[in-house]
Amino acid sequence: MRRLAGIVCLLAAAGTGAAAAGPVEELVMPGPLARAHAELEDDCTDCHRPLASGSESALCERCHGEVALDRRQGRGFHGRHPGARAGPCRSCHAEHRGRDADLVGLEPATFDHRLTDFRLEGAHRGLACGACHPEGTRHREAPLACIGCHRADDPHRGELGEDCGACHDADDFARAPFDHDETGFPLAGRHAEVACGLCHADERYRETPADCGSCHRVDDAHGGRFGTDCGRCHTDANFAEIRFDHGETGFPLAGRHAEAACRSCHAGTLGQEALPERCIGCHRADDAHGGRLGEACGDCHDAVRWQAARFDHARETEFALEGRHGEITCEACHTSSPGIAELPTGCAGCHRPDDVHRGQEGEHCGACHGSSAWRSEVRFDHDLGAFPLLGVHAAVPCEACHAAPTFRDAPRACVRCHGAADPHERRLGATCEACHNPSGWALWHFDHGGRTGFVLRGAHREVACEACHRTPVDGPSRDVSAPGDCVDCHRADDVHRGAFGPRCGRCHGEVDWEPVRVLP
Predict the structure, then answer these.
(1) Cis geometry, peptide bond prior to residue 515 (ω within 30 degrees of 0)
(2) Cβ of 480: how many Cβ atoms within 10 Å?
(3) What is the Rg, in whole angstroms, of the alpha carbon atoms belonging to the chain?
């Protein structure tokens, strides 16, 4: 029988057209072809080759190129199923069973979907075949990408692409195991707890801003003054935790500055304001000195306690604050801003209005006064002055000679102080020191012969000074008047009535008026 069929086929192949094959085919054909191949019944060579057993699969692939490609590349059902990939097509797709025969032979209930390019996992297992393979379509036409079936369900409207599996899985579509680190914006700290919609409003994912300010602008307690890079100061684990190192700005926050609110210094927009780096830039209104001590507050104060002043006046200014100077306020001397008037270092520079000496003692008050007690620490050495205090003068109170603090007005001439007590009533002139010394008024000595040229001899030694010096001296500059001839004093005693001239000594002696020497 097989040999007969081969002969018939050979004869059919040798004929031409349908007329030659018709009666023979009808005689030897096993049965009508399925409706899909009905047009091939006119020519057996479309599917068979005479005397070439096993050539049918190659002829099938000539029409079914997609299946042939799957078999060669090992994909799809025909490339994954061992029998479909290597076996003849007719082993699964038998023909000549009539027009209504099922060429596919697919049993959905027993079909192993793992042998396809799309494994049924998760929620896909419970779906009806028609959900992915609508009637009238070929099974291989079912899309492999998620978006092929779920485009209408895509809440992202395609903004995240078509690879739904990058975020979602087939078990639970709502669970999205998306690795946000791959976007360049890792979800760290509190960001990991935030719902996607808070950053991706209305399911918009493209061009989502990555800077803090874009999302937290409404929460920015600084009102945008510090820019949009909140991460410079805050952490995403705890917004209240501040990690900004202010020392990097060149202005470390030490002492009380570390407790100050940022806005107390940063009142404007960061980068658009020129912040002061000197104390006075922020504390000018708080300057209790009114600018009189300059603008370098740090020279005296520190950032921990404003009242604790540490300025070393002796080292920094070469003017040590000793005695009472250490108790006075800075403003007592610093009455104007630096540079307007240079501060004096001499006593008179500050104490000129208080100088009771009216400048007579110079400007170096420290030569006499101490800085602790102005009146009790007086150390003036009168002996170094123009009038040394000798004898009883050393025990005399200052006020006895200095009725007023203008000490240089005090008289130096004896008669200015002792004129009222002058027993000579000024007949011996104003230079008391010519006879007396300061150790005692009664202790006096005058060399009458050496000083005046008139040696006191004889009875002249016992004569009181005023006996010869009878006329008061008018003023301290005039010389003491005294007679030069005997007759000037003895005229009243001259019994000769001037007959022998004014030189009594020619006849009379100085010891005794008698006897008389007779002139030769």
Answers:
(1) yes
(2) 19
(3) 69
Whether 18 and 42 have beta carbons less than 8 Å apart is answered as yes
Kindly state the DSSP code that residue 224 receives in the 8-state scheme.
T
Q: Rounded to whole angstroms, how far apart are CA atoms 248 and 270?
A: 15
User: What are the pLDDT digits (tens) for 41-94?
Assistant: 888 888 988 877 778 899 999 999 999 999 999 999 999 999 899 899 998 999
Q: Which residue has the tokens 């009472």?
A: 324
Residues 156/203, Cβ–Cβ less than 8 Å: yes
The predicted-structure confidence for 327-366, as pLDDT tens digits, reads as follows 888 878 887 777 555 777 778 778 888 888 887 887 788 7
pLDDT at 16: 37
Residue 166 has pLDDT above 50, yes or no: yes
Q: What is the DSSP string of 288-327?
A: TTTTTT-S-GGGT--SS-TT-----HHHHHS----GGGGT
Beta-carbon contacts of 474 under 8 Å, excluding residues fewer than 6 positions away, are none
Helix (H) or strand (E) holding 65: helix 65-73
Residue 297, both tokens: 């507050």
Residue appearing with tokens 């030694």: 461
